[in-house]
Structure of Solute carrier family 25 member 48:
Amino acid sequence: MGSVQLQEFVAGLVGGIASVVAGHPLDTIKTRLQAGQGYGNTLKCVLTVYRNESLAGFFKGMSFPLVSIGIYSSVVFGVFSNTQRFLSQLRHGDPAAAPSLTDMTLASVVAGVISVGIGTPVELVKIRLQMQTQPYTKASVKLNSTAPGSPVYRGPIHCLRTILQKEGIPGVYRGNVAMLLRDVPGYCAYFVPYAMFCDWITPHGSISPNLSSIWVAGGVAGAVSWAVSTPMDVVKSRLQADGVYLNQYKGTLDCMLQSYQNEGLKVFCRGLLVNTVRGFPSSAAMFLGYELSLKAMKRCQTETNP
């Protein structure tokens, strides 16, 4: 793999870490709203988590995503950029040629499909940890306690090992169909608006977008993407949270039907406000980290090989 292709993956890693730091607290609120019971609206959920678990409650399950989502984002951005470069080479004979809207959309679809293989276990562990309403302590609970409200997992490794022991490989990929239906349109509504909006707000005559353009375009892209993805994100969150204490859903379609029968169409908009609000700073940090690290690597390469 060439240095240019490798740089895309490294830049995606940096962007992924930045996005986790910026967006995890609101991601916890989103998960509790979508898959939990009794949290009510967003403000009530925030106050309940803070009152019961203090500030630490907002950062539950963050250690695993910090590492794994960095790798996940590395793959997503690397696959997207290199697929786009491949299509430009195929169509125009030049990998550096400006991609068309069709090329960006196709590259987004490929990135969305590939992301599910890595992203499903990451999301599963994160959500299982976020849905534990009490911290684990050996003095307070036995490992086999499955009463609602009791901790089940000691941490991400124990969580993953427990799921493997109880449910096998299929259990680790629980919710993968819902995630595929979320991520394919979600990434199309992520990369394409970012490129278009970034191009629109970049001053005429500039070779590349400035920091403010990247930040705004990244934030808008994140908000748009999450608005599109929220209905299937609700289904995915419910499927992956299912199994911490009991099993309620047989699969994606069953989850959708049960959710609709019990709560109506409005259930698929649960967490929409949190998702769109969280999507702005999280994606702004993602694209800033990505673009800045990419520029730094290219500048370093130019200085090393004048």
Remarks:
- Residues 3-304 form a domain with the Mitochondrial carrier fold fold (CATH 1.50.40.10).
- The chain has a mean pLDDT of 85.
- The chain has one domain: 3-304.
- The two ends are 21 Å apart (CA to CA).
